[in-house]
Amino acid sequence: MSNRNRGNKASPARAGQPRRTVRGGRRQQGYFDYNLLIVIVFLICFGLIMLYSTSYYQAELKFGDGFHYFKRQGIISIGSMIFMLVISRIDYRFWKRFAAVGYLAAIVSVILLLTPLGITRNQATRWLGITETLSFQPAELCKIAVIVAIPYLIVKMDRKVKTLKGTVVVLAAGGLVSVLILVISKNLSSAAIIAGITIVMVFVVHPKTWPFLLVGGVGATGIGLFIHFVIRQMETSENFRFRRIIAWLNPEKYAGDLAYQTMQALYAIGSGGLFGKGLGNSAQKMVIPEAQNDMIFSVICEELGMFGVAIVVLLFAILLYRLMVIAQNAPDLYGSLMVVGIFAHIAIQVVLNIAVVTNVMPNTGITLPFISYGGTSILFLMAEMGLALSVSRTIRR
Questions:
Q1: Are 274 and 266 in contact (CB under 8 A)?
Q2: 26 beta partners
Q3: How large is the angle between the packed helices 333-357 and 138-157, nearest 10 degrees?
Q4: Taking the CB of residue 93, how many other CB atoms lie within 10 A of it?
Q5: What pLDDT is attached to residue 236?
Q6: H-helix or E-strand containing 31?
Q7: Is residue 21 helix, strand or coil?
Q8: What does the alpha-carbon distance between residue 124 and residue 14 come to, in Å, rounded to a whole number?
Q9: 338-374 pLDDT, tens digit each
Q10: What does the pLDDT read at residue 361?
Q11: Cα separation, 251 vs 261, whole angstroms
């Protein structure tokens, strides 16, 4: 995926279905990545099936309609699919002219969370809107804004981005959005994803690898030392995030409150076995809070077992592979970096969700792409897929 030894021209494509164009009297073959489209459709359909199975009981109790979550997600998914196909027909270079405006709009949307337009749910102000129904998460807008704006900034800076000053400027552009989300909405997971997207794009264009390895090693060491030396002081702290770390390290002790969701998810994973209990037969989904959101992966483990988990992981692996192929064969650096950003977003979010559900890392409230319930998430994810498909259309053999 690296652009280190390539210019603005990319290597020929090897995947997708051809469509013929004529330019300058020469017959050329263009591509549309149907393989990526098929994987997206599979993930959406699988997500709707699992959402129905996971949410029916809670929806019946809460709304008197077991299909409540399924119907809403289904309507949004169909609309998002159409939205994705429309975006895929628009040349991705068209969005260059809106890169700066989109970046500023994303920042403004996060700041607006401090106004009466900010909607608080579960003690977190992460939604913006007029009513509970007509609302969206600015963090999702920020992800796609960074994916469009940072490549544009890198291309404009050209060779300067490989200098220390240039690297700092690009990292600061992504870091500003990340910090605002963390400080204003207290959304650690989205802040980490946006920071990760920025770092991956800079890593791809930067000629040296060792500075990134050094920073990563120092960061990992710092986190380890923080947990080792400060852990005892955090047990008496009233800070919610500190207490989450305590609950993560000793979930059995806090199984009744802070680690309740995590423990129930682990019970679900453990009881699934190799082939699971069968679709719709999960018992833990009745007690896991908001199982259709962050913890839907645990229900997949319980109902479909490790076999079902392997299928889900395989689907995501194929999707990421198709994105990697498109990034490698994009006709210019801007298109390549945009798809690299989409790749980083999906990869980081999938890894973080599975890590949270399996208690490899503290609970940060992060959804599983294409599968968890959430209108804003699916809408912007499909917009990103539309951008990737748009880039695939410009690939020529």
A1: no
A2: 23
A3: 140
A4: 16
A5: 61
A6: strand 26-32
A7: strand
A8: 46
A9: 999 999 999 999 999 999 999 888 888 789 999 999 8
A10: 85
A11: 10
Tokens describing residue 223: 């986190």
Tell me whether residue 25 is exposed, middle or buried, using C-beta atoms within 10 angstroms of its C-beta: 0 to 12, 13 to 18, 19 or more. Answer: exposed
What residue spans of the chain are helical by DSSP H?
Answer: 34-63, 68-88, 99-111, 138-157, 164-180, 188-205, 210-234, 240-249, 260-272, 296-329, 333-357, 375-393
Give the three-state DSSP class for 95: helix
**311-344 CB burial, b ≥16 within 10 A, e <16:** ebeebbebbbebbebbbbbbbbbbbbbbbbbbbb
Instruction: HSE, CB side, 13 Å, CA atoms: give it for residue 216.
Output: 10
> Which residues lie closer than 8 Å to 152 by C-beta, 6 or more apart?
96, 99, 100, 334
Q: What is the pLDDT of residues 176-210, one digit of tens each?
A: 999 999 989 888 889 999 999 999 999 888 877 77
CA-CA-CA-CA torsion sign (140, 142, 145, 149):
negative
Tokens of 154: 């890198």
Q: Rounded CA gap, 18 and 29, in Å?
A: 6
SS3 of residue 22 by DSSP: strand
Other Cβ atoms closer than 10 A to 81: 18
Q: Using CA atoms, how far apart are residues 33 and 18, in angstroms rounded to an integer?
A: 9
Q: What whole-number distance in Å separates Cα of residue 367 and Cα of residue 370?
A: 9
Tokens coding 397: 């053999």
pLDDT of 306 higher than 90: yes
Separation CA 296–CA 393 (nearest Å): 34
- Residue 240 phi, psi dihedral angles, 5° rounding: -65, -40
276: region left, alpha or beta (phi > 0 left; psi from -120 to 50 alpha): left
